[in-house]
Amino acid sequence: MAKRHGIDLGKMRELHQRERADFLARRPRATALAGQSARHLLFGVPLHWMDDWPTPSPLFVAEAQGAQLTDVDGHRYVDFCLGDTGAMFGHSPAPVAAAIACESARGLTAMLPGEDALWVAGELAQRFGLPVWQFALSASDANRFAIRWARAATGRDQILVFNGCYHGTVDDVFVDLEDGQAKPRASLLGQVYPLTEHTRVVEFNDLAVLERALSDGRVACVLAEPAMTNIGMVLPDPDYWQQAQAIMRRHGSLLLLDETHTISCGPGGFTALHGLRPDLLVLGKPLAGGLPAAAYGFSAELGERAQQAKRDAPAGHSGIGTTLSANRLACAAMRATLAEVMTDDAYQIMFERAEQLERGLRELFVRFDLPWCVTRLGARCEFQFAHRPPRNGSEAAAGQDTELEQCIHLYLLNRGLLITPFHNMLLLSPHTTAEDVERLLAMFDEWLRAVRMA
Q1: Is residue 89 part of a domain?
Q2: At residue 63, does pLDDT exceed 70?
Q3: Which stretches does DSSP call E strand in 245-357?
Q4: Containing domain of residue 143, as a range?
Q5: In 27, 66, 387, 454, which residue has its Cα 20 to 30 A from 281's Cα atom?
Q6: Matching InterPro entries, A to Z (predicted)?
Q7: CA distance readout (Å), 105 to 52, 95, 143, 329, 336
Q8: CATH code of the domain in which 202 resides
């Protein structure tokens, strides 16, 4: 019998075929819409990522509220994906919905500042310890703009990222390590200039290689998540960031932290929880309750250097910012999220649910004698097909198994449980109940009983 990661592949594949047939049989409306959408939408979906779910045809959503989602065929789901963090605090939070409704009647955008932007910037300064801020429509844009400011302020051309990272659709970051060499990521479409001329890539949690990569003084900034979340979660070693920051300061490289996912750690993200001191910080999709919005902050020193660089440059477009940045609707939504949704009380509930899930998954893997591990980052939890948590992107990639992931995901989805399609990440919202977590664990137990090696 063929097996992988302790799973009987024959049993798993037979079960998966039945699950695919069941998905289609129970969703006639979604199947009909899929047929229509293929005429006018590339890949049959508005964004091709929406085709990455493990379903034989797209799952069309009718509505979502709190931690619940309903599809067009009337099936209800407990959502542990939550828009891959965009709805981290639940779908359509009441304060955000009210703020949007109110502001939409007062003007949507004017390319002029409003009072909400001042309030949001002040609140972010308090939470993250960075005194000055700018706004964007996505973390992708915010990272792109922050890189430009870092290069402008330092006069350096290089950036450094970690192998397996993800920071949105910024061309510069799609560089991986292959056999010890930096190469453009094979999946990147339409790339025409060599990314490795201006981007360096090293493994996470390796201080010696970081030191060598920064030693020539050409790196403007190190762009990183405090803990990696794209390749599967990779946590930093206990003293990694303290020593890494010292290395960066020694070589004059700035630290740009992307907290879009690691905001799952608490109201001030990993940065506040662990006392990090970044020069720049980006926060994206959960900031406005799911409405397109992002913000990026500067240390006082870098803020001055950035402003001086703009003053010294010729007049004209800087290449930084868009006309809809800091629009009135987004600012109102950000203010409502920070003031009434992204609260200490909300995080407390999320942490309790995540601890419950982490504990339950560990117990499952022990009971079934599986060489799998569990990693948790505040309200974010992930299981990985490896006997111990990975320390870098290469180790995380080696433990991934797309076929196995898709089989698990579809089985759970057919039982009303959604998890993030890209890997085995689960997110807990303030609306997720203890019963929701127990139901997920019970269905996972059921799947393991069906496919485990005898």
Answers
A1: no
A2: yes
A3: 254-258, 280-283, 294-298
A4: 94-341
A5: 66
A6: Aminotrans_3 (IPR005814), PyrdxlP-dep_Trfase (IPR015424), PyrdxlP-dep_Trfase_major (IPR015421), PyrdxlP-dep_Trfase_small (IPR015422)
A7: 37, 16, 31, 10, 16
A8: 3.40.640.10
